[in-house]
Request: fold
Amino acid sequence: MDYVTTNDGVEIFYKDWGPKSAPPIMFHHGWPLSADDWDTQMLFFLAHGYRVIAHDRRGHGRSSQVSDGHDMNHYAADAAAVVEHLDLRNIVHIGHSTGGGEAAHYVARHGQPQGRTAKLVIVGAVPPVMVKSEKNPGGLPIEVFDELRKMLAGNRSQFYVDFPTGPFYSFNRPGKMPILSVIQNWWRQGMMGSAKAHYDGIKAFSETDFTEDLKIISVPSYVVHGDDDQIVPIADSAPLSAKLLKNSTLKIYPGFPHGMLTTHADVVNPDLLAFIKG
Reply:
């Protein structure tokens, strides 16, 4: 198993598949999952000649279950540790949900200044900022995130069944049939991680303001969202992010859920490939 140790002593697990000479794509997973959530994409891009890398965020998956550092600054620095350990260059970064915020923060603060980033893709991502405030009146009330914390602290295992069974993949919509294996895989990934990291991570993904990061980023960027995303509502996310980015393309999929990378991989993966090759 492959690990890199960060400057503050955290062991970050990563996967690195494909020829070292192939163009690299690095994937950033959503909350509270792991690098395994990218398996379908990693196999797809591997088959198309890419080197694919994905890591488990600190406190998630197989990475160290440390008490502290569950914030975007540390998340981005941990991603940078993997990139620098592997000496990756001309990377395409793809982030989903919380991972979209992590990827944007990494590119703005590390990847672009170091000249290591080729392109950025954010899918169903949390930027610019999720929580409602005076500066962000269209955001979600803090009570929404307080309820997530309450459910996690009360019975994390049950919460990690209910969340993917319901809104994450839009299995709660009329006529939608829940896919048991998808729900079980979501639960498996979630329960691998630390309850403390997941609890603290709610603040990180909901309250971090990525506006300045997005303004800094000038590499070609692809902003992807489903208009039935019940986790990160589209109205206050993708169109605003696309507007803030200097060089962006916005793609909205009618009826697609937050977890579209799993439920609609057959549609989304070729579109990601077209952007990366373009």
